[in-house]
Amino acid sequence: MAKPYIIALEEHYLDPELKQLGGRVDRIGPPGLIERLDDLGAQRLREMDESGIDFQVLSHSIPGLQNVDAAAAVPLARRVNDRLDAAVRAHPTRFAAFAALPTADPRGAADELERTVTKLGFKGAMINGMTDGLFHDDERFWPIYERAAALDVPIYIHPAIPHPAVVEAYYKGYVEKHPGLLRAGWGFNVETATQGIRSVLSGVFDAHPGLKIILGHMGEGLPFYLWRISYGLRASMSEKTFREVFCRHFWITTSGFFSDPALVCCMMEMGIDRILFSVDYPFMDNPPGAKWLETLPLGAEDTEKLLNGNAKRLLKL
Question: Among residues 197, 193, 175, which one has the least CA distance to residue 185?
């Protein structure tokens, strides 16, 4: 049997200028994390080949440009994205890209999204965490979503470290011993799921009905909670249920979450057409994800959708 073509689309790197400017690098991860974030060539390609991953959609590691002020972020975004474009052009059969956006200037971010999509062939954008302590459902950020809908490209909402007030209120006394609690252990999931819920409630999908959002990590738990959330909001969302809006506008990936029960739950709630394979490299190593694929509880058609078909359709690869 021929090996399936495998596309992974939450795969991170670190721009050298952002690194030199003192952008915080999250060092919690497997050995060699920083070296792998720095590499967009031989080592990355070798590790992809070793695990049978054919294609990566590259995106900047947290926090990206979300903690850069407006004046600096717009020209910096252009340089960051141009360097990423050069890396993609060096290996066009192996890489594509999501843009880093200067969200402190939403209209500048919308213009940069359009430039990267129309001039560089980027497949959408990734936004990490908050900007100036604000979730990105705030209406000041809606120009980004308006432009994404007009361009018919998705926005990937990615976690970052929770707001300091949340860390103080929710995690104090535990995070010192268990720093992963702020990250994949719980904090990342809660913050990003909250962003997803707020986006549905904000009305942004009514204003821009073509908007497409991607969430990683099996939808940050939201598929599991869809029935409960919809029931809890039934009085205030009588025209369209939360579940209806979520399943119309969101796609999810398997990044860093290689679990059969979670996959089956997501399939039952959203359908296989909304789920895309990702690894979360290099915060997650490629081999566990590749090994998981060998025993997926799926038929051939659904496996093909998960591994490449859904990504090809959503990202126009």
Answer: 175
Torsion, Cα 273 282 14 148, to 10 degrees, reads 10
Question: CA 209, CA 186: separation in Å to the nearest integer?
Answer: 31
Q: What DSSP string describes 184-223?
A: TTTHHHHHHHHHHHHHHHHTHHHH-TT--EEE-GGGGGHH
Contact (CB, 8 A) for 190 and 217: no
**How do residues 126-179 score in pLDDT, each as one tens digit?**
999 999 999 999 999 999 999 999 999 999 999 999 999 999 999 999 999 999
φ/ψ of 297, rounded to 5, equals -85, 55
Catalytic residues: 280
- CA dist., res. 164 & res. 311, Å (int): 35
**Residue carrying structure tokens 């430039």:** 115
Within the chain, which residues score under 70 in pLDDT? 1, 22-29
Quote the CA–CA distance of 229 and 240 in Å, as a whole number.
Answer: 13
- Amino acid letter for position 85: D
DSSP the chain: -PPPP-EEEEEEE--HHHHHTT------SSTTHHHHHH-SSHHHHHHHHHHT--EEEEEEPTTTTTTS-HHHHHHHHHHHHHHHHHHHHHSTTTEEE-EE--TTSHHHHHHHHHHHHHHH----EEEES-BTTB-TTSGGGHHHHHHHHHHT--EEEE--PPPHHHIIIIITTTTTT-GGGGTTTTHHHHHHHHHHHHHHHHTHHHH-TT--EEE-GGGGGHHHHHHHHHHHTTTT--SS-HHHHHHHHEEEE-TT---HHHHHHHHHHH-GGGEE----TTTS-HHHHHHHHTT-S--HHHHHIIIIIHHHHHHT-
